[in-house]
Each structure stands twice: as structure tokens, then as C-alpha cells.
Design brief:
- It contains 12 helices and 8 strands.
- The chain has helices at 3-10, 12-26, 34-46, 51-67, 73-88, 114-127, 142-155, 168-182, 198-215, 233-243, 264-272, 293-301; strands at 102-107, 132-137, 158-160, 186-191, 221-228, 250-254, 276-280, 288-290.
- It has an 8-stranded mixed β-sheet with strand order 3-2-4-1-5-6-7-8, with helices on both faces.
- It binds guanosine-5'-diphosphate and magnesium ion.
- Guanosine-5'-diphosphate binds next to helix 6.
Length: 304
């Protein structure tokens, strides 16, 4: 399956939801008026863009309609598409893991898909010929390291793990040393999404961050926050909490295949001002895709 087909497929539920609502606005419509904009606003809100962003989109649309003197509903559809693309395009530099090693710290609450996404990332990078080392720094549950080991096997990555209950920062320390010694291209660190309390968790992440900065001072570092798209606007609340801790540099938005409200991508990237780097569209190893705003919106507007 090609890249575009795969996004389309992953967005099936959202496309059906959003697509149907959109068709409802456009079908049989002959003139462009305020009524139509009201209906479009509802569609955006129902697709989980959030009230504020939806208003902003409609405001821009109203402006364009006026400037270009648009009177054909179909043209409005095209303009809406462009505005949504604009909402997703940030001036962020492309993701470049250009040092050897580079390091990716993966954080986020329990169950959002951190470990699975790390497995898929590893698969992606190994497929590109990179040497990948995973650090099992979720030592809170024994099953976590086990799950990561399975992903290491599946993807052809190496893994550094300690016993359950070990100090996560010590795992990361060892992984940094091993990564340097073995000439890894990318080190990816899994973390716990829950400790005894939230302050604990944030302290732990800060400690891990410090270890990486000290041990791999010259390495390119990314901190990926993983967010579950099926939790809709709640995902945003979580994201803000985590984004407050040191340097989240990218978002991985998982489970887009499981929601009809994929519009949350726009809310997330717009409101956090952090680029969405990858989207998860399934549970298999090849179900993590680099996020491309234009293809995403094009896929969303495909009619079949
Ligand atoms: N459908 C779907 N399921 C996913 C995706 N990403 C993760 N999952 C599932 O979400 C569940 C929790 O994932 P896990 O990686 O253990 O979450 P963690 O606690 O953040 O490490 C697992 O059952 C995964 O298979 C995705 O993109 N699509
Ligand atoms: Mg996990």
C-alpha cells in the first residue's frame, strides 16, 4: 500500500465521520451564505478541532470568501482545505536524527501507546538501515520491559534492560554507554506513564533528561510526547501537563485508526505549538507514519 493510501486507510473512521458531515453541508447547496458557515463551524467542532480553532478557521474562510468573491460552494470546500493545511503547517525544521548516536526520549501517560510506538519507530529506523538501541526505562511494571523486548526482536533493534523496580535513570545511563560503545545510530528510551504520584513522575523524567544531556552532550535529542487520539480533547489536557516538563520537541499521535475525531491533530499541533512528528494508524509494526500535514488534509477530504 502506498503512503497516501495508508493514511486514507488509517483515517477511515475520521473520513467517514468528517466526510459525511461535510457532504451534509455541501449536498444540494447552491449558494454561499452565513448559514453555510454556521454549519461548517458545527462540523469542525464535532470533529474535535476545539471551539477556538474552529472559530478561527471559519473566520479565515469568511475573509477569503469576501476577498475572492466566492459564490460556488465547491470553491468554499477547496478554500477550507487550504486553511486547514495552513493550520497544521508550522515553521518547524524537519526531524533530523543527524548525530550518531541520536536519542529519543518517549514520554506520556499510561496506555497511550508509548511502547508500541517505540517498537514501530525502531522498525522504521532499522528498515532505513539504522542501528537502533532501545532503553527499557519503564521499570515500574515487569511487563513493560518484556513488551519492549518483544518489539526489539520484532524490529531488529537491540535493548538494554534492568530488573523490575530498578532506577530508570540508571537504565538510560547504561543505554547511553552501550549506544556509544556499539555505534548505535538511534537510542530510544521508553518510560513509565505512571509512578506513585505525578510529582514523582515529572522528577523522574527530569532526572532521565539530565542523564542524557550529561552522557550524550553533543547528541541530537528529541523528546516525543505520545498522545492517544481517541481521548479527543482530553488528550490536549494531558499534553499540556507534560509539555510543561523539560523540552517536549515532538508529538506522536496514536490510534488515529480508532477514532472518528481525527481533527484533534489540528487542535494538538495548533494549541501546543509543538510539531506532530508521527501518527499511529494501527497496531502492526508498519503502522506508524511520519506526519505530513498536506497529505493528512488531502486524505481527509478524499471522497472515497
Ligand atoms: N489501534 C491502535 N492501537 C494502538 C496504536 N498504538 C498503540 N496501540 C495499542 O494501545 C495499547 C497500549 O499501548 P502501549 O504501547 O502498551 O502503551 P504505553 O502504556 O503508553 O506504553 C496497546 O494495546 C497497543 O497495541 C495505534 O496507533 N492504533
Ligand atoms: Mg509502555
Amino acid at each position: 500500500m502506498g503512503f497516501f493510501e495508508k493514511i486514507k486507510n488509517g483515517l477511515k473512521k475520521t473520513r467517514e465521520g468528517f466526510g459525511n458531515l461535510l457532504s451534509g453541508v455541501f449536498s444540494g447547496r447552491t449558494k454561499v451564505d452565513e448559514n453555510m458557515l454556521e454549519e461548517l463551524l458545527d462540523v469542525l467542532i464535532m470533529s474535535d478541532l476545539g471551539g477556538e480553532i474552529s472559530e478561527e478557521v471559519i473566520e479565515q474562510l469568511r475573509e477569503v470568501i469576501r476577498e475572492k468573491k466566492i459564490s460556488e460552494p465547491e470553491e468554499v470546500r477547496l478554500e477550507l482545505k487550504e486553511i486547514l493545511k495552513g493550520m497544521l503547517n508550522c515553521d518547524c525544521p524537519p526531524l533530523e536524527l543527524d548525530t550518531k548516536p541520536s536519542v529519543i526520549l518517549v514520554i506520556g501517560v499510561n496506555g497511550v501507546g508509548k511502547t508500541t510506538s517505540i517498537g514501530k519507530l525502531a522498525y522504521n529506523y532499522v528498515s532505513e538501515g539504522k542501528k537502533v538501541l532501545l532503553a527499557a526505562a519503564d521499570t515500574f511494571r515487569a511487563a513493560a520491559a518484556e513488551q519492549l523486548s518483544i518489539w526489539a526482536d520484532r524490529s531488529g533493534a537491540q535493548i538494554v534492560r534492568h530488573a523490575e523496580g530498578a532506577d530508570p535513570a540508571a537504565v538510560v545511563f547504561d543505554a547511553c554507554a552501550a549506544g556509544k560503545a556499539r555505534g548505535a545510530d538511534v537510542i530510544i528510551c521508553d518510560t513509565a506513564g505512571r509512578l506513585h504520584n505525578k510529582a514523582n513522575l515529572m522528577n523522574e523524567l527530569a532526572k532521565i533528561n539530565k542523564v542524557i544531556d550529561r552522557e550524550l552532550t553533543d547528541a541530537h535529542k528529541e523528546v516525543f510526547l505520545v498522545i492517544d487520539a481517541t481521548t479527543g480533547q482530553n488528550a490536549l489536557i494531558q499534553a499540556r501537563e507534560f509539555a510543561k516538563t523539560a523540552g517536549v520537541s515532538g508529538i506522536v499521535l496514536t490510534k488515529l485508526d480508532g477514532t472518528a475525531k481525527g481533527g484533534v491533530v489540528i487542535a494538538v499541533s495548533r494549541q501546543l505549538g509543538i510539531p506532530v512528528r508521527y501518527i499511529g494508524v494501527g497496531e502492526q509494526k508498519d503502522d506508524l507514519m511520519p506526519f505530513d500535514p498536506d497529505s493528512f488534509i488531502d486524505a481527509l477530504f478524499e471522497r472515497n
